[in-house]
Amino acid sequence: MGTTALDDTPTGRASTALNTNFPPGALSPVEIIATGPSDTPLTADAEARVNRFLTEIDGDARIDTVLPAQLNDGRMLAMAIPSVTFDSMAATDLVRDLRNTAAGAAGAEIRIGGSTAEFVDLSDEMTTKLPLVVALVLTASLVFLIAAFRSIALPLKAIAMNLLATGAALGITVAVFQWGLGENVLDFTSPGFVQVYLPTVVFALLFGLSMDYEVFLIRRIREYWDASGDNQRAVAAGLTHTARPITAAAAIMIAIFASFLTADILELKQLGLALAVAIDAVLIRLVLVPALMRLLGGWNWWLPALRFRPPNTRAPRAAAE
Q1: How far apart are CA 269 and CA 21, in angstroms?
Q2: Where are the transmembrane segments (predicted)?
């Protein structure tokens, strides 16, 4: 976690002294809670198995020391001090390995907690829910765009272009902050990962911002199409009248988000770079979208007609006498 901006504060000085004179994991030890099934007291055999588990993990190179366990009402609490920083990939791997090992302790339920464990659980939860978020956003966008553009091809194209823009922004952010490309230029040290919330936040923000550009451009093209019926002329005229406003709006947002890169907090740098990427406004909205609309021609404006046959309201023929 990049918090160099806090180095001169009391909290920052305390953290520096702690990291300098004590194991890196002392800032956030791994909490180990052992109980019997359904939070019942441990039996003598189960307690022995828990002690063997603690002895086993004490030999792990990623653990500096395991503090003496405390026993209270048949339940055991122990603290393991990692030899790695609590927000590193090695620490998250340690928590996952401890949980896998703890699952084999018969007769005891061993739970692994602490700050790193919270990060692991949060990461798993957000990773699991991300496909649902993406599906909901795409479905809602498709429905609204079909209603707004009265077309099938344009909404599908808009969603594909927005996904391309989001994927490009996240890919560049991963290359810079996870792989460490450009560390010296942006003045940071790569932790080897990006923040877990970044894909969800960047997808939601970029998708919304990209859709603004898309609607602005396509609505103007639609106006010229309705007036002339000439797709090539409508695309050219719509692009001519919206290029400047789109470029100006994109330049303002790029300047705002790029200012995050000057922060000493790594999370802000990652978010700023992901949102400041100009691929969407420059390459996609002003090059790819018009080019695809030119190639699609009349298919841009195709929408299947929904024809409903009215019910037969004619009175039945009178029965013959």
Answers
A1: 29
A2: 130-149, 161-181, 193-213, 246-266, 272-293
- DSSP 8-class letter at 25: G
- Say if residues 181 and 250 touch (Cβ distance below 8 Å): no
- Assign 62 to helix, strand or coil: coil
- pLDDT of residue 306 exceeding 80, the answer is no
Please tell me whether residue 41 adopts helix, strand or coil conformation: coil
Indicate the average pLDDT of the chain: 85
CATH of 12-113, one of 3.40.50.150, 2.70.40.10, 2.60.120.10, 3.30.70.1430: 3.30.70.1430
Average pLDDT over every residue of 12-38: 85
Per-residue confidence (pLDDT) for residue 14, from 0 to 100: 78
Range 128-301 classified under CATH 3.90.470.10: no
The DSSP secondary structure of 177-229, one letter per residue, reads: IIS-TTHHHHT----SS--TTHHHHHHHHHHHHHHHHHHHHHHHHHHHHHHH-
Host H or E run for residue 237? helix 231-258
Q: Does the global pTM surpass 0.90?
A: no
Reference 218, options 304, 305, 140, 148; nearest CA is: 148
